[in-house]
Amino acid sequence: MKLTKERIVDAGMAVFAEVGYQNLSMRQVADRLGAHAGSLYYHVRGKDELLALMADRICHHAYEEGTAALDALDALPAAARWPERIEAQAAALRLSLKQHPGGAQLFAESPGVLSTGALSLMERLLRTLLDGGVPAERCGIAADVLLSHVTGFVLQEQNQPAAPPTVTAERYADLCARFPLLMGPLMERLDQDEKFVRSVRLLCAGFTTPPDSGTGARAKTGRPHR
After folding, report:
1. Would you tell me which CATH number, out of the four given (3.40.50.300, 1.10.10.60, 3.40.50.920, 3.30.365.10), belongs to the domain 1-44?
2. 30, 70, 110, 191: least buried by Cβ within 10 Å?
3. Its Gene Ontology biological processes (predicted)?
């Protein structure tokens, strides 16, 4: 079968899922394709470009999934509020990262090169935030925070053990005594989907909340800065 950039990316994704970011090599990708490693360089300049192409594929998939989710919102009788549109985009990115083994790590650690997929995700987030009334000076940081949150959330999901660790009754009682807030009712036991939705909504609520003018308050009361 003819060697193409698309086939190389396919093979790269498969190898990456098995060996991870650091251990991926062009030779392994070539072996997966039954080709000589040197022949890959006619299509992809090296590992960094391959990783960037792989990340770009995930981003484009997330963008397409986000578009479908936004179209569904637009079909509702009333126009969706901007936080719901942000939530739809965040959920689409999370799903895309989870569908690719190691996708979150690839998205987070891929070389910092221009990717039309990543740029498209960021551009749409910025437009949604700006149209929703988030102050322009906060939109960039808000979009960065959202993308970082989704990536970190999925990294935790993909690294969770298959089963929670076994804890004896004595050990559990000791933990409750030492960490009453963490082990108590403040930390709701939510499934991952519900936790994700609530976390994105909490971030959206914060994007439009005026920052605390703590410095000014201290100046007015005469309290010293620390």
Report:
1. 1.10.10.60
2. 191
3. negative regulation of DNA-templated transcription
pTM (predicted TM-score): 0.82
Mean per-residue pLDDT, 127-152: 94
Confidence of residue 221 (pLDDT cuts 50, 70, 90): very low
The string of DSSP letters for 23-34 reads H--HHHHHHHHT
Listed residue (12, 30, 31, 190) closest to 103, CA to CA:
12
Class of domain 54-208: mainly alpha
DSSP string, 55-78: HHHHHHHHHHHHHHHHHHHHTSSS
Q: What is the pLDDT of residue 196?
A: 97
Per-domain boundaries in the chain = 1-44, 54-208
Which of 18-27, 196-205, 209-218 is least confident? Answer: 209-218
Residue 100 near residue 58, CB atoms below 8 Å: yes
How far apart are the C-alpha atoms of 187 and 102, rounded to whole Å?
A: 28
- Of 163, 128, 133, 160, whose CA–CA distance to 146 is shortest? 128
